[in-house]
Amino acid sequence: DGGITQSPKYLFRKEGQNVTLSCEQNLNHDAMYWYRQDPGQGLRLIYYSQIVNDFQKGDIAEGYSVSREKKESFPLTVTSAQKNPTAFYLCASSSGMGTEAFFGQGTRLTVV
Amino acid sequence: AQSVAQPEDQVNVAEGNPLTVKCTYSVSGNPYLFWYVQYPNRGLQFLLKYITGDNLVKGSYGFEAEFNKSQTSFHLKKPSALVSDSALYFCAVRDSSNTGKLIFGQGTTLQVKP
Predict the structure, then answer these.
(1) For B8-43, what is each residue's pLDDT tens digit?
(2) Which of A6, A58, B66, B103 could make an SS bond with A45 (beta carbons 3.0 to 4.6 A apart)?
(3) Is A102 on the interface with B (CB under 8 A)?
(4) CB nearest A103 (choices: B43, B103, B106)
């Protein structure tokens, strides 16, 4: 069954900790994206990657880091430098410029 | 700069009536435009896209959208709304002249009342 898998579904972080959100796709897509969703603010782009071993900052990259060592994986680390990390995080992938993105089911991160 | 605007936070419509959810965009090259729907605590589902060709595109669940280059708009429409269409709708754009950055609007909540 092809698709994008995000894990975990819920994640709790203590202040000062780094946490890593997983995103795996078996769609053979080149491009992958991470978005943050807050109520009333829509989806904001954190990082995106067009190809393995390359990625670009989106609009709100501060306090986040990513890696793209494999085509199918694009993990997002929320670092302690991110002062307000509580949000719903969505990962997506697509195969080209004119193609739609496919989304995972999201990870809800809460700082406790 | 690349951007998308959805001017309405919420749209209310009675079941059976036509619905429109508005979207305008700004890109430097040719736009690739998309509509998605999101149900609570879930990921986004693709509805339809405009890449090139006919300005009226048809998508899933009876939705359609009209691309208007002069008005830089891509409004989502449906002739007859269903209560089950109630959800959060997002418009998105890619700029053909850049590296594939996919930008979303702020979303519009559609409420269809029986």
Answers:
(1) 999 999 999 999 999 999 988 889 999 999 998 888
(2) A58
(3) yes
(4) B43
